[in-house]
Specification:
This protein is of the alpha/beta class. The protein is built from seven helices and 19 strands. The protein folds into two domains: 175 residues; 92 residues. The strands form five sheets. Strands 1, 2, 5, 6, 7, 8 and 19 form a seven-stranded mixed β-sheet that branches. Strands 9-16-10-11-12 form a five-stranded parallel β-sheet, covered by helices on one side. A three-stranded antiparallel β-sheet has the order 13-14-15, with no helix packed on it. Helix 1 runs parallel beside helix 7. Keywords: Flavoprotein, Oxidoreductase. This is FAD-dependent pyridine nucleotide-disulphide oxidoreductase.
Length: 287
């Protein structure tokens, strides 16, 4: 299916972008869930017009602003964004492809620090989508490092495909894991070693585990992994004053573009990115 605008991220920047695009009669889809950074904040005192407000309440107010508009929401993870000339193709975790004339990246920032060798061995034995790549390791030995509920679901799924699966639990206690999976708890992963690809995962304790492939499942990944050709500066997506990136039709807004990491800044940038995306969409449609 093709939309005018796809927004990756359902935080303040993404919701602001969706509202402004929809007001201008563009078809919009948002990928993402409520921002944990916002919903878990107990008190916000500097959001103009609201005084002291809980983050969860402000988030609900944001979402209420969209209730009267036809906007598609999806919690499915966007794995990769491909620039296809006059449109963009978004590869989802399920393998489905969604097309959009313009895209706004509003994913926030990745707070989990990379493991040693994670960047070096990305796509060389390390993957961020078990559902996508599990078939590559049919009958082989695999390690999954899990940081969230999704990682538990992924582990239970791929355990039926791979030969042996070890799950490094970085999520919480008492997870509902298939008993056939080798559960590793109380260990802190440090990084990967190998020649041309990741072969060994090393832990802080000195423990090592060898495998044919490794999966890292966490809440988000670096923007350049999702959009391989996007220009990065100081670990953030580089944008101009119009929130445009180096890729035509691709915009970014919010924390993913750099500090200060403030809600009002994200909302404002979401609006700017949306207005510029709408202008771009109109231009493409008029060709």
């Amino acid at each position: 299916m093709r939309y005018d605008l796809a927004i990756i991220g359902a935080g303040p920047a993404g919701l602001s972008a969706a509202l402004n695009a929809k007001i201008r009669n563009k078809s919009v889809i948002i990928f993402g869930k409520d921002s944990p950074k916002l919903t878990k904040t107990e008190s916000i005192k500097n959001y103009l017009g609201f005084g002291d407000i809980r983050g969860s309440e402000l988030n609900q107010r944001f979402k209420d602003s969209l209730k009267d508009y036809e906007i598609n929401f999806s919690e499915e993870r966007v794995q990769t964004v491909y620039a296809m000339g006059d449109y963009h193709a978004l590869m989802l975790k399920s393998g489905e492809m969604v097309e959009a004339l313009a895209v706004i990246v509003a994913t926030g920032i990745e707070l989990t620090k990379d493991l040693v060798g994670e960047e070096e061995y990305f796509a060389k034995g390390i993957s961020y989508c078990a559902t996508c790549d599990a078939a590559l390791y049919k009958g082989k030995e695999v390690v999954l490092i899990g940081y969230n509920e999704e990682s538990v679901e992924e582990a239970n799924f791929i355990a039926e495909i791979v030969g042996k699966l070890s799950f490094v639990n970085m999520y919480k206690e008492d997870i509902n894991l298939d008993p056939a999976i080798n559960l590793i708890e109380g260990e802190v992963p440090l990084g990967f070693r190998g020649d041309n690809r990741a072969e060994v995962l090393e832990f802080k304790s000195g423990k090592k585990i060898k495998a044919d492939g490794f999966f890292i499942i966490k809440d988000s990944s670096k923007a350049q992994r999702m959009v391989p050709s996007v220009k990065i500066k100081d670990n953030h997506i580089e944008v101009d004053s119009h929130m445009a990136t180096n890729i035509a039709g691709l915009f970014a807004a919010g924390d993913v573009t750099g500090s200060p990491y403030q809600i009002m800044r994200a909302v404002g940038q979401g609006q700017i990115a949306s207005l510029e995306a709408v202008r771009y969409i109109t231009k493409i449609k008029s060709k």
